[in-house]
Every structure is written in structure tokens, then in C-alpha cells.
Design goal:
Elements lengths: L4 E5 L6 H10 L13 E6 L15 H14 L2 E4 L11 H10 L11 E3 L5 E5 L8 E5 H5 L2 E6 L2 E3 L3 E3 L1 H4 L8 H8 L3 H14 L4 E11 L7 E11 L2 H11 L8 H8 L9 E3 L27 H10 L6 E4 L9 H5 L5 E4 L2 E4 L9 H5 L5 E4 L2 H7 L4
Parallel strand pairs: 1-12, 2-3, 2-7, 3-4, 7-10
Antiparallel strand pairs: 1-11, 5-6, 8-9, 10-11, 13-16, 14-15
The structure holds iron/sulfur cluster (2 copies).
One iron/sulfur cluster (SF4) binds next to helix 11.
Amino acid sequence: MPAPVSSVICSTYDEAEEAVSRAVDLLGGISSFVQPTMTVLIKPNLLAGAAPERAVTTHPAVISAVARLLTEYGCRVVIGDSPGAGTRYTVSSLRKAYERSGFPPLCAIPGVTLNEDISHTTVASPNGHLVKRFLIISPAVSADAIISLSKPKTHLLTTYTGAVKNLFGIIPGHEKSLFHSRFPDADDFSEMLLDLHGAVIPVLHLMDAVIGMEGNGPLSGNPRQIGLILASRDPHALDLVACRTIGIPPEIVPTLMAARSRGYINSDPEIRGDDPSSLKVLPFRLPDTARPAGLRMKITRKALARLQRSARFLAPYPEVVESRCIGCGACVRICPAEAATLRNRRAEIDLGRCIRCYCCHESCEEKAIQIKEGLFSRLLFGRRQ
Ligand code: SF4
Ligand code: SF4
């Protein structure tokens, strides 16, 4: 039986403090998760330094609400994450990401600091199916407890990112690229994410679902109002409720399918508080790489994935929009297959080497990488571009 999920309507970030407090109370209160003397790592989604209104990162108002709850209870709080999107894991890039995402005022809360420790530690995941050891950022290892603050967004590789995918940020810097390289397929990548949850286990997962992201997330999609704060001990139950709320069918989300096949989701979670369906959120626009459920020609997502694995060049592929490229090199730095290069200060992609992980799209602040339909998509689903 999955753990319950609390759900509290929160129309604007001005209401975040009250909504977070109620969401935690519905699960038994903050004392159910931490003790007053603990050092707690708050792990937001800090994919990249981006203004809060872009809905790329967890909103500072939600982080502030959780930090206040913890410090008023007597905890010390460290806020930390390792940004993705081709960002180096250095003190200066962390400071830049904090600044751009509106995090520095959080340090005005007594007992709260922004992490600047860029060391890392190896942690075992003894029951991992694909990975049994992970490099993890040190504050996630030294903290007495972790609270994950995710954001519901669409994702070019995994279709959806929320509570489960949020933990990928505790892997330092470019080490993330190695996992994209080892697990280019979304199903394998999702199994790896579940293994990561065996190495580091947050005591609470809270989701900033006030505003999410639809379209070609997780960096370049469009913000969409939802109006909720969600919380649970169980990241899979939380993602299931979030996906249903924003109209993403769970069967096209590989992390949820992996959790189901491992027996982590065997029934519907109990929802405490406000009914998310009362918000009547229209379905989120899916990323260009996703396949709708229930489909033409009865080709399942799994079968399509198999076909694409054996003939990668038929899958959706990244293409550089030369007029937008400023030659910053972020896509080159993040590309795990060394398929992206710079020539004459413009990015180029060698599709023969490309493993279709879409990290370059995720890293490009200029929206200079677009996703083009592969041959299978055009034949089976029709042209969408
Ligand atoms: S496509 Fe151009 S602008 Fe975008 S990340 Fe690559 S080099 Fe930078
Ligand atoms: S060029 Fe291909 S392999 Fe490299 S980051 Fe982009 S999608 Fe991934």
C-alpha cells in the first residue's frame, strides 16, 4: 500500500507558507519526519539558474516555507543541489545559479545556508538493479535528513520529471552525463533513478505544483498554472497523483512504469486534503519526443522504444537552429556522446554519434536546439512539426 499523499490548493506563491504547513500537518506534522537537533538538506529542483517565473526551478517561496517550518522546529537547514544543463559543479557556478533563481534571500532565515561544499562521496545502493554505487554530493550524505522539493514538468527523455527524477540532482556535475551515456534509453535511465532512491532516501517529498511546465521541458517548456502543494513520504505515489492531475497518462511515464513493475505501486494512494481533480487542470502539452497513450496502429511505447534502440537514427533527433546559437558551448560540455561540437562558434551535432538523450536541448538557454521528428514518428504518428 503506497504512503498517503497530501494535497493542498495553493493558487499563488503568496499562499505557499500556509499551504506547505497544512500539507505537512496532513501527514502528521513536521515532527513525524525530523528531530529538532537535525541538520536537514532541502534539495530543490535547481536544474539551472533561472528566474522563478520561468518555472524551471522550485520557487523560493516554497523553499522558504519549508525552511521556516524546519528552523522554527529547531533544525539547521542547508539548501543544496547540483545543477544539470551543462553547468559545472563549482562554487562560482553554484552562486550564479542561486542568484539567478532568487535563492540568496533564503539565507536571511536564521539557521539557513546555501550549500557551497562541492565535494562528493560514494554511496552504495545494495539492492540496485542496474547501479549499486553512486557518487553523491557531500551535503546529501552528511545531512541527518533530506527533504526533496520537486517541480512537476515535462521532460524530453523521461516524458515527466517530478519527485523521483528530482533526486538525480544529488549526482555531482558532469557525472550526470555518464549516466546518460550508460543508459540512453528512458526505461533503463528510469531504472537507474529508482536505484538512486535506494542509495539516498529523503524523509519527505514535497512538490511545488503551484506552477508547472508543459511542452519541451525541463528547461525550455512553458509555465502552466496548476495550483497545488503536494507531499508524501513516497515519491512514486506523489508522481502518480501529480501526473493524473496534469493529464499525463502514467503508462507513458517510464519512472512510474518501472516503479509499478518493481511492486512499489500496487494500488492507488490515499489522498488527504483537497481533491486535485477539483482544479480541472487541462492536460499538459507533452514533449515532442513523447508518444500519446492509446494509439494508432496499436504500437506500444515499449515496442517503439525497442525499435528505436535498434535503429537509433529513426528516433526524434536534436537539430541546431544556427540563427539562435551564440556558441556558448553548454551543449558541447554536457553531451555524453561527444556528438556536439563547436565550429566557427556555432554548435554542430553528429547524428551518427548522438544517443538521443536530449541533454543538449536541456542545456541550451538560447532555445537554439530543436527536436525534429524521426522517421518512425512521421510514419506512425504523422507529422507534428
Ligand atoms: S546550441 Fe549554441 S547556444 Fe545552444 S548551448 Fe549549444 S553552443 Fe550554446
Ligand atoms: S547531441 Fe545527442 S547525445 Fe549529445 S546531448 Fe544532444 S541528444 Fe544527447
